Amino acid sequence: MIQNIWTLSKHSLFYGLGSITSSLLGFILLPIYTYFLTPTDYGILTLLGVTGSIAGTIAGLGLGSALFREVIHLGTDESTVENTALYFLIGESILFFGVLIAFSPQLSNLIFNAPQYTFLLRLIFFTGILNVFNIVTMARLRIREQSALYAILSVARFIVGAGLNIYYIAVLQRGVKGLIIAGLIASVLFAIVYIALLFRDLRPTFSIQAMRRMLNFGTPLVPAGLASMVMTSADLYFLKAFSTSAEVGLYSLGYQIGMVINLIVGAIQMAWPAQMFTIAKQQNAERQFAKMLTYYLVALGFIGLLFSVLAREALMLMTTPRFYKAYTVVPLIVLSYIFYGVRFMTNIALPTQNKMKYMPPIIISAAVLNIGLNYLFIPCYGMMGAAWATVISYLILVLVQTAVNQHFWYIRYEYRRIGKIVLICGIMYGSSLLIRTPNIWFNAGLKLLLLSTYPLLLYMLRFFENQELVSINQLFRSGMHRVTTWRIGL
User: Fold this and answer.
1) Longest Cα separation, the chain
2) pTM of structure
3) Are 65 and 347 in contact (CB under 8 A)?
4) N or C terminus: fewer CB in 10 A for the chain?
5) Could you tell me if 319 and 34 are in contact, meaning their C-beta atoms sit under 8 angstroms apart?
6) 375 within 8 A of 238, measured Cβ to Cβ
7) Alpha carbons 427 and 206: distance in angstroms, whole number
8) In what helix (H) or strand (E) does residue 113 lie, and over which residues does it extend?
9) d(CA 121, CA 113)
């Protein structure tokens, strides 16, 4: 059990470093973005990015996951699988994005009610073609568990991307257009890097059988992936239709801060499949899965509190006054992504027992619900309606998906202990709302002091089992011993 947690944590750390650095690009540059962009500009930038992500999900055809399964689970030769997937994706993406480039004027009118964003859409779609090499390269690194190299590449891309973004928006002052161009240049540079990494293993080979299996596995994931994107993106299009681009910008900013927790979720999600399949073969698998979910929620609950409680202060420090209102949606977005993370941790039976055919209907149904809720809530409540639609949709998704998984493989999760985590998080967040002084730094200090009581409250509610307390004590003593040894060495 300890070894499984350690292995998952180690790879999650590296994958998390990779995903965090790339995803944090917009977050870290918020002070610059909010200084040089208006809320309307920020809303347009977000819609362009989301449109590109949706197109990329379709073009990818789920082959990133299919590659993983074909090599690890079925044992097909890695080189054959990589070459087959790469050649197919190159041809398919050129055709797919070529069509989108041709119809960019119509898409600009559909999304923005104006034709002037045609050129930017075309740049976004051309960038999508280059991301083919990213899919295959990063899948290879995950297959080989080269999480350190994965992180190095991601950090390098972050540094290059940050530099280009700062140059185009702060130095050249090119606004939204400059940021899109910067993203394209970064994609060109790293496509060259990915090709160099793949070059030694490139062969003129193509396995029709392997491609058929990968498409059979990956293609059904596309509707599920699109449905997931609907749940994260449909609200933006509804806000644009029923409100203003400025409110889209405010909501996007709050969403981006709340979504930082998804970087941790995503990191664990990338490391989790290998661990999940390993644990599933062990005799005490059910107990281990139950424990893993509990520990996951302990950590995620604290991180979620951190972002929710300090959202207002963070925005006041990082942005200009016209963006402060965005903090109101952060706690709801954080809660949504906690549900999103639980969904992956409880999705045990479907992948291990080859029942993935049940996944698309579940996610598609949740996406339809999300669209309906956005239609009902947004005209009346604006971005708060969008946030509540997201929370409710993810809650229903995790409940239904977990129930289906439990039908095929019942796991007795530690519901009482999970209830204690929920209770403590609720009490702490409610208490934080009472902290409102004129001084932003004093506010932040009091809230951090409140958050520091998290483990104490868990202890007072008798959350920890005896063996866990012994392990925590041993870890504490080991840490103190290392500190003492280090000081003596100095």
Assistant:
1) 70
2) 0.73
3) no
4) C
5) yes
6) yes
7) 58
8) none
9) 14
